[in-house]
Specification:
This protein has helices at 2-11, 47-56; strands at 26-36, 62-73, 78-84, 87-96, 103-108, 114-119, 125-132, 138-146. The protein is mainly β. The protein has one domain (21-146). The strands form two sheets. A four-stranded antiparallel beta sheet has the order 2-1-8-7. It has a four-stranded antiparallel beta sheet with strand order 3-4-5-6, with no helix packed on it. Strand 5 (103-108) and strand 6 form a beta hairpin. The longest helix is centred in the N-terminal third of the chain and has 10 residues, at 2-11.
């Protein structure tokens, strides 16, 4: 009987493993951008993002930085973030994928499927959503994770 218990302990070490310490939180920054085809005003902080978006959606000409949201998220954690007028996105920080701080994240936006992507730390990833505000502005979110630390 004693040998049976010893054998079970040998093949099932997970029962007695030390619990993992929670990961260090990573700052995730979300830019809430409202775009339209009405004029050509572009907020100075998002000029580069606007130029990239125009490559895919040239009809969008005006880009306003509506708000900036900063959240601390641990690896494996999922949080809802209200971006505008009761519209929420869900952010999940999946994993760090390399020594340079590349992060894999899943984003669920209004009226779109989940998007999972790996992004270089410190670079914004813009997502053009299908949500249009009452005053006809397209909701765009741009997401970045930082700080950029090597493991």
């Amino acid at each position: 009987m004693t040998s049976l218990i010893a054998a079970l302990l040998l093949i099932s070490p997970a029962c007695c493993a030390e619990p993992k310490a929670p990961s260090e939180p990573i700052q995730v920054v979300v830019l809430v951008i409202l775009a339209s085809d009405q004029n050509e005003n572009v907020h100075e902080r998002i000029r580069e993002i606007a130029a990239e978006i125009r490559k895919k959606s040239p009809q969008l000409k005006s880009f306003d930085l509506h708000r900036t949201i900063s959240k601390m998220i641990r690896l494996g954690e999922s949080i809802p973030v209200e971006v505008i007028d009761n519209v929420k996105i869900d952010l999940t920080l999946n994993e760090k994928t390399d020594d340079e701080g590349r992060v894999t994240m899943t984003v669920k936006t209004p009226k779109l499927d989940e998007i999972t992507y790996a992004r270089t730390c410190g670079k914004f990833f813009p997502i053009i959503t299908n949500h249009v505000t009452e005053d006809k502005h397209r909701l765009i979110i741009a997401i970045m994770a930082k700080p950029c630390k090597k493991k």
